[in-house]
Every structure is written in structure tokens, then in C-alpha cells.
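User: C-alpha cells for both sequences below?

Assistant:
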Amino acid sequence: MSLTTTSRAELRSDESFTRFCELVADVPPDIRVGDRSWSVGDVTRHMLSVVRRYTIRDLNSRDGLSPTVRDVTELNSADVEALEHLSHADLLDALHTEWSKYLALDVIMEDKVPFHFGATIDGFGALGNMLAELLIHGYDVATAAKRIWPIEDRDALLALNGVLQIAPVLADPVRTARVRAEIEFRIGDGRPQVVTIDRARCRIADATSTDGRRDVIVGGPPEPVLLNLYQRIGLLAAIRRGVRLHGGRRPWLIVQFKHWFLMP
């Protein structure tokens, strides 16, 4: 954990799962989503495949994980294609069945487990990642269908717990080859975090454990921070939702920040 203290019970994400299923059950499955490469049905297939990555594989093994962002993209596409034979109704039934298995998993929250890209995260991060998948893909479907998709700040903060554990291995070695910067994030009521980029190396630490002047200090509600980091909204939209610069030596670097990281 990094941003906030939580528990396995809080990270069960039942409410977010129910909301996601109700949404995709009520929206025509052929509506195109995001960049239009996927439909609502494809997003639902993707969510089933994501849940199965927790339920049908050994969480302590790297088997079935992807070493690079490109490999994750290819894996996602292959998994969606493999489920095209299911009707939307059968897909939703399978998703509920798999979710029951997910809830029964014996995840030891403090243990470290392997993740995509060669990353290692704890159980809080792993379950936080599942929550992020539900929130972000629910947002994608709702946006395409012109529906409202509220994301509670507490849920966004819990999802960011996982995001911040994964982020260091996603730093783009080309774009950050000459970058040296310290950016402090003050997200909601979470513990402030410092992202340090030092010539293609990235680390994230509690702000109270590091010294030095920050290049950027930025803060705001967890929901727009989450959507911005997942590249669902731009910086201006995040500002309209409450994200603010609080200072730093080179505040303009916040414009470049998200471009320093690879995204699946």
C-alpha cells in the first residue's frame, strides 16, 4: 500500500462489479467504445478475461503475464476474440460465475505477487487493479452510451493504490532518458507521494520520506487524477474537476508527465 490504509473487505468491489454488470446489460452490446476498436460486448469480454486472470492462474507465477505494454495489448485482443462465441447473455452469466470465484480467492494482502511488465505488487495493489478495471471500463461504456458513471473518491483512491505500485516499470525509457524531476502528488486525503524520474529510472515514495525541493506539486480529488492517469480525460478536464497546481520549481512539467509513461 502507499496512498491509504485499507482492507481486503473494502477491496471486494462488489458494488462496482454490480454497477458494471447492470450497465453493460442495459446498453446495446454493439455500441462502439472509446477509439471504436471495441464494442460494449468486447469490453464485457475483456472484463471476463481480466477476472479469469485472477481465478484460473497461479497468482504467484508469471505464467500468463505479459512482459511489455505491447504484449498486454495483444493479450487483451486475443482474449476478446476467444470469447466472441458467447452471446451477451451467456457472457454476463459467465462473468457473474467467475466473480464468485474471484471473491473466494485467498489473497494474502501483504504478500508480493508478480504482475505484468515485470512488476511486483502486494495484494492491496492486485485487488486495487481489479477495482480500477471496473471503474475505468465502466466509465468507457457509460461515456459511449451517454450515461452517468459516478466514481466515488474513495474508490478512485483505492484504485490508485494499485496504479502507483505499477507505474515505475511503465516509465518510457526513451522519453525519460534525459529527464530528472520530482513531482509530488497530494491526492484527496491520501498520503502525499513523490514520483522521481531520474534518467529512465522511476521510483515512487511517501513524500515524508524524501527531502529536496519539488519540481511540481499537484493535488486534487482522486477521481479526476485517476481518469487523467488512465488517459480518459486531459489536463484541462482534470483542472475543471478540481485538480490544482500547488507550486514547485518547474510547474510546467506536469503537462509532460503522463507522456513519460507507457499505457496498455
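Moving on to the next sequence.
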Amino acid sequence: MTRTPTTSRRPAGLDALLDRVAAPLPAEQAVADTRASLAFSADEQSPTLAALRDALLDPAEYTPAAALATAYVLLAAHTRELAHLAEQHTAETREQHGVTRSSRGLLTGMGSIRKVLDRHATSLDDRASK
């Protein structure tokens, strides 16, 4: 007895669901995923580097807008890490040398750099949300 092949039909709506799952990741979801990755990696030495690793290893396809938004989020996080380093250096210098005539300018300059970096990180975050 020979069997005739039967054609299996997909359930209605399955093609649309598969297309939706395979669609490139929208920018809002990419930003949310990147921020979640940063939060998850907060205990790492460099959370930004860990989140970048996760983004590069992510098998999802990103639209150009999603990739740009992800880059803005990661750059903002890295800029905040740099601001934290400037703040840390200022505190260590103040603790080690105190505030003297010669160290006041350095401490003021490092504080200004930290503020500039914080403002820049905020502007990068704003760009990621657009």
C-alpha cells in the first residue's frame, strides 16, 4: 500500500506570528533590553562593557534606529562611568592632600569635568529615547 503525502497546513495566523517574531527589534524594545542588561551587570567591574558584550551576542536583528538607540544607551552608561571616575579621583585627592591653594584648582576642574560628563550622559539618554 502506497501512501500519498499529505500536505500539512499551518494554523491560521501562524505565519503572521512567525513574521512578527522574526521581525527586527524595535528601538523601544532595544533600549529597554539594553537598560535591563546594564542593571543586571551592575556588579561587574564595567557594566557598560558587559552590556555591550550582551548586545553584540544578541541573536535578534536590530533595525538601524534600534541599533542607534542601543549605542546611545551604552555611550551614556560609559560616560557615567567616566564621571564616576572623575568624582572618585577628586575625593581621593581631597582625602590625600586636603584642600590647599595648589589643589583647589585641580579639585574644581575635576568637579567641572564630572558635571560636563553627567550632562553629556543625560543628553545621550535623551537621544536614545527619541
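User: Anything stand out in the second?

Assistant: Residues 64-97 form the longest helix (34 residues).
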